[in-house]
Amino acid sequence: MARTVGRNVAGPLLFLNLVMWLIVLGFASWCLNRFINGTTHHPSMGGNGATSFFLTFTILAAVLGIASKFAGGNHLRAWRSDSLAAAASSAIIAWAVTALAFGLACKHINIGGWRGWRLRVVEGLMIVLGFTELLYILLLHAGMYSSSYGPGYRDDEYGGGVGAPGIEQKGTHGGVPEAVHV
């Protein structure tokens, strides 16, 4: 039970983030399409001077966020140090772009003007995703501090090298330990 604490917490958070990213991608794509077509007079649209930048970075963050959740799902399935590296690195990149979109969402709100409900939903979800994505990254890296939260970065419980279960050291050959299968 102790070895799955991080897995039990990161799993639901990963799923929640994936659902929010899909909603953000759908709404931001719709808003960007309306903005490009010049139909900002639609009751659900509106916008201001930051809208094009905000929507561009939001769509980029959403695509990276969805891709990182696939790597995170693979890590939750395997729960090994090598899958942790892929999940954590993609999540950090997704969070970095999310932080940019988060800042643009704050600027978009600060400029003001009339904004439709879809734009306000995208703004709100980007602010929430900025924090939940950071929490997800912290949960992925919690295994570095304690193995009860996830696979550690120096976890050597698998593999075929020295220190793996079922392998003893026989002696050294040229300064390199020789392994003998037991």
TrEMBL record:
Report if keyword Cell division is assigned. no
Transmembrane helix as UniProt keyword: yes
| Pfam entry (one) | AWPM-19
The record ties this protein, via InterPro entries, to: AWPM-19 (IPR008390)
TM ranges: 12-30, 50-72, 84-105, 125-145
Q: Which domain of life is it from?
A: Eukaryota
Q: Which UniProt keywords apply?
A: Membrane, Transmembrane, Transmembrane helix
Output this protein's name.
Uncharacterized protein
Organism field: Lithospermum erythrorhizon (Purple gromwell)
